[in-house]
Design goal:
Blueprint: H1 2-10, E1 18-20, E2 31-44, E3 50-63, H2 66-80, E4 90-92, E5 96-98, E6 105-106, E7 120-132
Parallel strand pairs: 1-2
Antiparallel strand pairs: 2-3, 3-7, 4-7, 5-7, 6-7
Length: about 140
């Protein structure tokens, strides 16, 4: 399952600073925080054997202006939505951007020490369906 989430995270453009799981205490803006969810069984056989798995990643785009968040979000969506991945041991569909209806939001709990601004963030969710390759 790690191969699936690693392959999804590898799709992010190299022009974007990416943090996986945690962010340093003094990050450079803008950046993308990538979090993975434990893959879900989406479909099972009558014998309850897992046939289809859904691997998800959440990309939180963080910047010091709305324009920055929008620009980086566009790059992330362009790189991931519709992309194909080929992780070892899996047969996959294309990556889908899952609508989540979340607005770009100001994080008033955090203040950038250099600019004295509160960062803004947008949450982007992606899923890929996969089944394990036959042995």
């Amino acid at each position: 399952m790690k191969a699936l989430t690693d392959a999804l995270a590898a799709l992010l453009p190299s022009t974007v600073t990416v943090h996986r799981g945690t962010v340093p205490s003094l990050p450079t803006f803008p950046y993308v925080l990538v979090m993975a969810k434990v893959p879900d069984a989406l479909e099972r056989s009558q014998a309850r054997r897992k046939l289809l798995t859904g691997a998800r990643v959440r990309c939180t785009v963080v910047g010091l202006s709305m324009d920055s968040v929008l620009i980086i979000s566009e790059r992330v969506v362009k790189a991931m939505d519709g992309a194909r991945i080929d992780p070892p041991g899996w047969v996959t569909g294309s990556v889908e951007n899952v609508p989540n209806s979340q607005w770009i939001t100001e994080d008033t709990d955090v203040t950038d020490m250099t600019s004295k601004k509160h960062p803004l963030y947008a949450v982007l969710d992606f899923i890929v369906t996969a089944s394990q390759s036959p042995a």
